[in-house]
Amino acid sequence: MIAKEVQEHCLYIGRSRHMHEEFGTLLNRGFKSWVRNLNICIPYILNFLINLILYFLFFALMGLLLFTSGTGTIIDPASLSDEEIFAMMWGGFSENLTLSVSLLLGFFLFAMLVQSFFTAGAIGMAKKASETGDTVLSDMLVSGSKNIFRLFMAVLLIALLLLVGIIFLVPGALAVGSLSSLVENPEASVHGMTALVIGAVLWAVYIIIVNLVLSLSTYALVIDELGPLEALSTGFGFFMNNKLDVFFIWVITIGLALINSFVGELAGSGNILVAAVTSLVPVVVLQPLTAVLWTRLYLTRKGKKLYNPSDLLSDPDSI
């Protein structure tokens, strides 16, 4: 009996080692999985297009609020000076404060809800691709509809956590005082401005740390179908147990985004074609590739069984 238990334990350890991919192997297989399933970019493209429409509608409605005179006629901003434009915008915003704030908040929440659906759909597709080798668009619809509201709540919680960092600005804001006193006596507020700048830097560092520590929270929510709070806790625990792996993939994704931005700047902002390409690269390439890498990291470190691209007849290496 003891010998049988020992044998089963050894088999379990062997399977765990097989499922626990080394970091280099994870990157290699994750990249091949993405190449095999380029359709994972579809959720991000749809999210991008819908957000473009939402932004257009939002700015059109805000324009009607800000550039409509008291008689109800729309005023052409081109016929006004800069001072008159700012005065009219402030007047329109003040007169429609409740409606403007409601419109801004409603737009923000609806855009976040749309993004939650497509993000959940993309993670679901990445999960299916990592487990079986292939994914289809219906996987996006199933995963998106199943996880949209829970992911929406988790994203809201993370946003609130990021806003907590505003406390770093409080000492500097109190030291600076009102804007009028700063304009009248700027020398007296030098120390306050220094404290404000330091507070802004600390807030930026805080945002980076929170994003890094909770990088896998949304993936844990979708993959394991967790609640928002449980997903944040699981994401934090996953980071604590896999700090280097999470940090390296985070650095890779940030580095690729910076390289894309650098190429866009180097090619010149006046080149419309280059600007269009560098704008589409994050949506078509970087986001889906990142989703596959994060998903594979989470699955393999959780001991899930994943497919090996070399076991498939249509492995990209064989093309």
Keywords:
319 residues; 0% strand; disordered N terminus; disordered C terminus
Largest β-sheet summary: none
Any idea what the shape is? globular
Helical coverage, percent range: over 70%
Question: Which spans have pLDDT < 50 for at least 5 consecutive residues?
Answer: 1-18, 313-319
**Residues in β-strands, percent:** under 5%
- Judged by helices, strands and strand pairing, the structural class is mainly alpha
Question: Based on DSSP secondary structure assignment, what is the total number of beta strands?
Answer: 0
Helix and strand run = HHHHHHHHHHHHH
Query: What's the number of domains?
Result: 1
Brief overview, please?
With 319 residues, this protein is an all-alpha fold. The protein has helices at 2-19, 23-36, 41-66, 82-95, 97-132, 137-164, 170-176, 179-184, 190-213, 217-224, 228-241, 243-267, 272-301.
Written description of the protein model:
The protein has 319 residues and is mainly alpha-helical. The chain has one domain (30-300). The chain is 78% helix and 0% strand. It contains 13 helices and no strands. It has helices at 2-19, 23-36, 41-66, 82-95, 97-132, 137-164, 170-176, 179-184, 190-213, 217-224, 228-241, 243-267, 272-301. The longest helix is centred in the middle third of the chain and has 36 residues, at 97-132. The chain is globular. It starts with a helix and ends in an 18-residue tail after the last helix.
